[in-house]
Amino acid sequence: MYLNDLAIRVSDWIWGWPLIIIFLIAGLVTTIFLNFVQFRYFLRSWKMVLFPEKTANTLASGAQMTSFQAFINTLGTSTGNGSIAGIGTAIFAGGPGAAFWILVAGVPAMALRFAEVFLAIYVKDKYSFRTAKGGPMVYLHLVPGGSFLPYLYCAFLFLYGLTSGNAMQANSIGLGLSKASNGAIEPIYVAIALTLFVIYVLMGGAKRILQISDKLVPFKVAVFIIASLTVLVYHSGAILGALALIWKGAFTPQALGGAAVGITMQQAIRSGFARSLNANEAGLGVAGTFFGASSSKEPVDDSIMSMLGAFISSYVVCFIVALCIVASGVWDNGLSSAALTISAFNTVFGVYGGWVVTFCAASFGLGVMVSFAFVVHESWIFLTGGRFGKMAYLIYALVTFGGTLAKVDLIWNTNDIVNGLMLLINLYGMMWFLPVIRTYVMEYIKKRAS
Fold this sequence. Notes:
Layout: H1 2-14, H2 17-33, H3 37-40, H4 42-50, H5 67-78, H6 81-94, H7 97-122, H8 136-141, H9 149-180, H10 187-203, H11 205-234, H12 239-251, H13 265-280, H14 286-292, H15 299-327, H16 337-349, H17 353-384, H18 389-405, H19 408-432, H20 434-449
Helix pairs in contact: 1-19, 2-7, 2-19, 4-15, 5-11, 5-14, 5-15, 5-17, 6-13, 6-15, 6-16, 7-12, 7-13, 7-14, 7-15, 9-10, 9-17, 9-18, 9-19, 10-18, 11-15, 11-16, 11-17, 15-16, 16-17, 17-18
């Protein structure tokens, strides 16, 4: 209990107004410096994902994945239970208004995603640092403070992979199955099953991780969209009212009454931003880790493609979950996390609602756990100088087991601390290189205009 109280206090301090303002300023400056790249090339990002060029699917010598696989895995890590359970937590803590701030956070998030992926690819083949050939550890090595920042950042990335990418997903799957079965499926059995699955994935190394991720990500997004749109169609008459409630709750949350009594505007903003960033991971450098290990040679084009991942996570997944919760009228029933999302789906699917959400949560969680196995391994290899690689897999499997059985609040609050610190370090590196990114973007704009 003491650990959770301490985590709450530290998390509240980190995710207060200073970090929110820093994120917004960094996103606004990046948007202006890069000539509103997220709006200018929004349609092109869709085209590049739906109709990828041959080079995007070509694996170059020495690379661990293609640039399109990097996009798929980035989307895999950013569409997990941070959306299904996290948005339920955000609505509980910040009221319907948190959904509005999820949308606001999505705009700078797309610009920051572009910048971090650009840098990850830009430093490839130009610089290297220890075992890293591209990605955040390399460009952080090139900024003032580069003698220690890569190690500090990588330590946080390693912890983030274990908490957000592993323990949080396993915990959500375990809780979902337990609730959906009314306790018939005990978490210990889920912990054993998930651990065995993770061990199977890890035994195949990076190749098996990528193969499973390529299949899981499109499947889980499709399942989620079908299920959530069914809820929204069923409650279509309440959607306009829900949107009005979200707007009102964003600025005057106290006026809503019910479970929102005492909720302040800062709580609404903090909840929306923290859960949105935990879901889309823009600015955290996770996407850069994948693209830095890819065969990408086109920093601007692949950065444009990568922006769509942040858009899908923020506007398609997170906001749809929030809208389902508010439109179904269950947002103030006192429940939180995945339980709140399940109650929204129960209004349509009845007793099967828990199973629908649990199926989505399981597919989301498994996809994230598979993708983050790569991130955790790469972080470990960097920190240890390429030694004891199998130890990273052992730790990952043990966290899967323990995370399934842990208290959910402690996992969420610890994760907020880790991703807040990661964000600050990575934003510093991105802002330092912003003039370099702008030069390439302006040349790209001129080239396409000629």
